[in-house]
Queue: 2 jobs
Job 1
Amino acid sequence: MERVSDGSYHTTYKIGDLTVTSLRDGYVDMPVRRLRQPGDKPFGDDLPSQVPLFEGALRLSVNAFAVHDGEDITLIDTGSSNAWHPTMGFLPQALSEAKIAVDRIRTVAFTHTHLDHIQGLILPNGGDGFPQLCRLLVPRAELDMFRQEARLKRFHSRAEPFDPGQRLGVSIETIATPGHEVGHTCFRVTSRGETLLIWGDIVHVPSLQFDRPEVAWEFDADQEQARASRLRIMALAADNAWCVAGAHLDSPGVGRIFRTETGFRFEPV
Ligand SMILES: [Zn+2]
């Protein structure tokens, strides 16, 4: 896997015959108490000094990823649009900078249905983010949750559920990783023996959770299950030399994972 181009809002990589672009929707600042030690215990003075703080807050990148197989483009997650903090919603600029015409995005798939992943379906002006959208793929376990998002009402009936292990085309396969949310899914993208795992919210705070994968996130629907999924997926990626791409890894959020004596370590591509 190699990096082929980049800009302020995007970075493009080659994986075998595929092109994958990391798209920067922006960032969100979160209080330190969102980090949870086993037993749902927040950090206080014991927060490791390796975690950078921005005016006392954790800063999370928000990324989406476009997979281009030469014909079709599949967009995995869509950012927040104007539905949350104004520090997010830059996906349209990122696509434009990467020279990906929104008309060419015909498939959108969600790792899960939290708002920083799904709201980009609709532009701040109310228009469709992807006017030629044909397939809108939602984890089956979160179909009802998706259909409760009032802002996305016109997409409710268009959502097509997918199941764990289902292939979404020749080069993309889904892997169930429940915990952060009930239907949380990773997308395994492969071409010519190379693999990139687009893993959604397996990690929220990369400065801490590679080193200490037992640390969970307050917004995990099930912290225990999220912890187990994180450990399983990190081991799988490290032991098989898969690259990973994360929605909240520091932008562009693509790299390799290695085992350490106590946990894991991330190295950007
Ligand atoms: Zn998220």
Job 2
Amino acid sequence: MTSLMDTNIIDPGLFPAEHGPPHALFDHWREHDPVHWNPANPAYTGSMPESSGVKSFWVLTRYKDVQDVSMNQELFSSHEGGHRGLESRRRGSRKTAGELHMMRPAEHSAVKKVIMPPFMPKALAAIAPEIDRLAADIVSSVVDKGECEFVFDVASRLPIYTFCELMGIPEHLRDQVAEYGNALADVESRTEHSLNPMIGLFGLAQELAEEKRRNPDDRLLSVMVNDTTLNLDPMQINQFMLVFAMAGHETTRSTAAHFIYLMHQHPDQYAILRSDFEAHIENAIDEVLRYTSTTTNFTRTAMADTEIGGYPVKKGDNIYLSYAAANRDPAVFEDPHRFDITRANAKRHLAFGIGPHVCTGARLAKMQLRALLKQVVTRMPDIRPVGEPEWLRSIWFNAIIRMPVTF
Ligand code: HEM
């Protein structure tokens, strides 16, 4: 029998078996070996070509270590060796400036300056009524049926439509983008089917970019296409579309599904939420983000010999930032495995990361979740999963991919 110390985090069966991140394992490592050396797992190749042959790496399970490394981009790089979750890391591939999360610091801040305005509170307030309307429409489309499959019929539609709204993608193309987005979000099985969603999305990006050159507007795609300081080439525009279509989709839809699942598992917490939705929803969303950590990790590479939390680390070593473990660190969250929507410090979670690469869409994600959950909780208050939901087989996302519900 494999002991906890010998368990390899790159075991694709680990998360589904645990219905999420392996918290008993993380607790053990945090207590006995908080900067843990995880050996390569040659048996794991992943279903994406770039994920095969992963190296050994350090796994950080303490909140403070994950935070310190995330804040220090010069010493712990996301461009050298990649910042992605391990299963989608590209080995030796050229990084394009379109891959926001893998840019060098100076380039990263220049690009962020251009793309951030639509994600700031004022711009988000302007699209809030449209997001509320979309959330209401989505729930209207199922509310009289008494049953549906929550992930695809409800949760996945808002992130895609919101992404279209933000980018300036016209309404008649949204279902097409939703189809590509859903296919792209299935990280593990994508290449088993085909590369078509990516090619399709790139084709669409080019068509739209051409249109935005001819008829500029104030939406993100137009801003990027027409910005003379960035001078993005077509491939970079494609990459941007891809990053945003993926980054904002799987994560937000999974958090909505986890929310409903957890409320069903914890009727006392659901009763608190329903007693005063407006008073509790913000904190409840943060607690669900903390508790589930849907993006369970990203990685960094040490740029020099150094130390993390007193453990020596060598130049070139890979580092796995476990947001899932950090979010259950008892040094920060009292009784961390308790799900408590009134938890005073729930919003300190690291589910969106922290530091220079902190999630661009964090505010937007919360806004969407709030709009959608308000519709669900008020119009389908007795919603409940039928049987056990299906979890994504993944070493990166803690994702529910199928959850039939009745209401
Ligand atoms: C519940 C929903 C979401 C979760 C849990 C989530 C989580 C994360 C995490 C953990 C990171 C990496 C942080 C780091 O490495 O330090 C990240 C980065 C990013 N996210 Fe999100 N995300 C969510 C929604 C969104 C949305 C809605 C968008 C946009 C529409 C978005 C766009 C991005 C982008 C562009 C980055 C790269 C930022 C950079 O490198 O500067 N995310 N997200």
